[in-house]
Amino acid sequence: MSDQCDGLQGFLFTHSLGGGTGSGLGSLLLEQLSLDYGKKSKLEFAVYPAPQVSTSVVEPYNTVLTTHTTLEHADCTFMVDNEAIYDMCRRNLDIARPNFSSLNNLIAQVVSSVTASLRFDGSLNVDLNEFQTNLVPYPRIHFPLVSYAPVFSKSRATHEANSVSEITQSCFEPGNQMVKCDPRTGKYMATCLLYRGDVVTRDVQNAVAQVKSKKTVQLVDWCPTGFKIGICYQPPTAIKGSELASASRAVCMLSNTTAIAEAWRRIDRKFDLMYSKRAFVHWYVGEGMEEGEFTEAREDLAALERDYIEVGTDSFPEEEEEY
């Protein structure tokens, strides 16, 4: 298929980090793509293990191992977790028991927003290479947090606010994020706002100015600009049969924030609890792995945690006043 493309920009890769196939086969495929198409962009949409909702007891092992393997092969990894999306479905879409279709419909809106400017015209188009350029300050720090707004059900569509300013503000609220972490505890290194539909540049500029003026949004001091804007005039499309109401405009925010380190700390802690007892390790060793691969992967994730702490540190710490 790639040979038939006129202008191949890169690859969008969707897999889970916690399952056996998504982590193992996914890592192998990404590694092979890196060998065959080294210079092409490789963007991941990775389903990350949720804090409380688990689909497999060995999720911590699979996640640490696959992150270690793909860290040098993926250019940008957009993480989502099932629990965060379950909560969005219950709270915003009034779905008492969300199923996988409900979750996938929300994730599909994000994937659609990311690729919209490749498929439709707009005043500020963003191509695949620009995501890496604008969101990844250092090669290893490539895990942006994903937010999407507006998310409301058809029954609420008539009375929900949907101005450019309001949907922009919504993206900075934890309830609209697709990974469970608190952005107020971290600092933003770079942010990409991808607007769709009835949006004009002036409204976007005013909305971003309002966000920057708020004390709750902290930017790292070494990257004070921090915002990349994309506008696509094609309005968002609600999937047929979806509970999500159609809207005249929408925004998908991709933000590289140090708050995402909370997700890595969480999974590393679970890994340590299991590995301290060598629980379930025999299954992996029986398939040909060595225990040394576990410790190597865990050390790499510990280094990733330290990387996030380092990039969030101010370049010029304020000197203490002398009295």
From TrEMBL:
UniProt keywords, alphabetically: GTP-binding, Hydrolase, Microtubule, Nucleotide-binding
Organism in which the protein naturally occurs: Candida albicans (strain WO-1)
GO terms for biological process, alphabetical: microtubule-based process
Summary of subunit composition and partner proteins: Dimer of alpha and beta chains. A typical microtubule is a hollow water-filled tube with an outer diameter of 25 nm and an inner diameter of 15 nM. Alpha-beta heterodimers associate head-to-tail to form protofilaments running lengthwise along the microtubule wall with the beta-tubulin subunit facing the microtubule plus end conferring a structural polarity. Microtubules usually have 13 protofilaments but different protofilament numbers can be found in some organisms and specialized cells.
Coiled coil start-end: none
Domain Tubulin/FtsZ 2-layer sandwich: 124-269
Gene3D superfamilies, per database record: Helix hairpin bin, Tubulin/FtsZ, C-terminal domain, Tubulin/FtsZ, GTPase domain
Single GO MF descriptor: hydrolase activity
Residues covered by the Tubulin/FtsZ GTPase domain: 1-122
Function according to Swiss-Prot or TrEMBL: Tubulin is the major constituent of microtubules, a cylinder consisting of laterally associated linear protofilaments composed of alpha- and beta-tubulin heterodimers. Microtubules grow by the addition of GTP-tubulin dimers to the microtubule end, where a stabilizing cap forms. Below the cap, tubulin dimers are in GDP-bound state, owing to GTPase activity of alpha-tubulin.
Family per record: Belongs to the tubulin family.
Transmembrane segments: none
Protein name per the record: Tubulin alpha chain
InterPro entries the record matches: Alpha_tubulin, Tub_FtsZ_C, Tubulin, Tubulin/FtsZ-like_C, Tubulin/FtsZ_2-layer-sand-dom, Tubulin/FtsZ_GTPase_sf, Tubulin_C, Tubulin_CS
Keyword presence, Phosphoprotein: no
Entry superkingdom: Eukaryota
